[in-house]
Amino acid sequence: MARRKGRRYKWTILPVVSVPILFLVVPIIFFQVYFSLHQWTAYLGEWWQADFVGLDNFRDVLGESRFYLSFLRTLIFAGSSTILCLVIGFTLAYLMRNPFPGRSLFYLAFITPMLIVPVAIGYVFEMLLVQKGPLNQLLSWLTGQEIQVAWFAEAVPAFVSIIFIEVWNWTPFVFILMLAGLASMPKEPIEAARVLGASPLQIFFHVQVPLLRPVIFLALILRFLEALGEYPKVWSLTRGGPGSYTETMPVYLFITSWEHFNISKGAAMSYLVLLVVAVIVYLCIRLLLREKRTLEMLYGR
Amino acid sequence: MTKDAKRRLRSVGRYAALGVWLVIVAFPLLWAVTTSFKPPYQWFTWPPTWIPNPFTLNNYRVVWLGELLDTQYVQSASIQTPFFALVNSIIIAGTSTLLSVIFGVLVAYGVSRYGMLSERTLFRLLILRMVPPIVVVVPVVIYYSTLGLSDTYLGLITIYVVTTLPYSVWMTKSFIDEVPVEMEQSAELLGASRLRTIWEVVFPLIRSGVVATFMFILILTWSEYLMALVLSATNISTLPVQLNKYEGSTEGRLYGWQQALAMGVTVPLIVIGYAIHKHLVRGFSFGMLKR
Fold first, then answer.
1. Is A9 touching B (CB cutoff 8 A)?
2. Which residue in chain B has the smallest CA separation from A100?
3. Pairing of strands A38-39, B247-248
4. Is pLDDT larger for residue A173 or for residue B192?
5. Nearest chain A Cα to B194, which residue?
6. What fold is seen in the domain A52-300?
């Protein structure tokens, strides 16, 4: 695209960028700092009368294993669901890269989970997974023996089910990205490799995958960052239970702030999380920025 | 094996693999749909009822019309019509989406044509969107209630506009970038003013893209849950928040009613999503991938 002259218009953009920053980002940072340094719960009078406690809230959060565990769970949850989404989404897209009868029907069916309200997904899976529910019946019927997995009462099944729901919900995202990548992939390198006598497997690993690398990165990064903050499905499905085995960081934060009304601790905690996530996001964005140029060269136009 | 047989085998394998995932995708959806047509005594039976018998519309009538039906099975649930929440959802999602797209087009045009912000800066602003919303919920809620914005339309709308702005900027920018700048230059040579150029040359060309952006952002704002949950009390409860209201005190979750409501929340989104399915890639990848 060609640039046009018009420097004097340059500042018309200022309100759109600065208003949110002034009226949203700055106060939010202020409140975040204020509450993490003061002791306040929702029923202790007005917030501006709260007692200054210094770093006590941070010490409180960092001193308990529940915080670290929830963070670890989030990383495992986000990491494994991202990888599974990628594997399944890529496989589906690869199988569907060329036209075949019924392709558009499969396409529409496969993008549907992405379009459903996340809370509703949580409730649907709750119906499926109850101990006397259809999934256990289906499993019993398929294996020919009585299976009664208590999906919400045991640690591993509960954690597996929240990962699976994330995968179910967001595989379409990876799928459409990969399909777009495969569809607009330049044909010449593949042809050239074929002429030079490469086997389909060699073409796949040495031509197609490297060409797709920026798209794969894009999908991985966006998916991982979104999964870090995933809240509605886990909340509506397990509320962090059984015990706290599916308590990911967002769920724990929500429980601390809105179930225990421990606003100060919640603020300190979100501050710590924000710092870690900011580093992760920054690294991801840098990575993405590097891949973006390749992406635009190959697929953007 | 002949080449033909090989090809047929591959085709069968492909349908089989796709079919497996199709079943996994369709099973929860079908279960949700059938549950919304089941009478109350079939919500929790063992073995589970797969096909509603008798097929009933009572759940929809209870939820959407507020009729008192099936009271012999469900005694203790508070019954409320979701029309209030539906209106709220339409107002909040509609307004915030519209504003987000308008701002998005303005910023995108400025960035695309005048280089008002470097693409790098714009890209960095994505960071704001990528931080999980949960970490800012506490300060947002207290800030908003101090301003008196909590539980008001304005509160949720401003939050939604800000959080969806990166999507609308990047998506509309990718459409504007496709319009050749020479067309604008020739319009200006013929004496059209800048605004007229934008309105009569650029806008018609990106109109379908803007509509797609609108629908895409609508999907995001319509299904948002966390902010709607913490920033609403009684005045502006939206449909996704209403979904967890269907719980009887003795019966547990009222699956049929809940699903009858969920259908109303979800079906519009699926229709919108199918309508703009060509542009979903562009939206979700912030305009970096096109089709």
1. yes
2. B11
3. unpaired
4. A173
5. A6
6. MetI-like fold (1.10.3720)
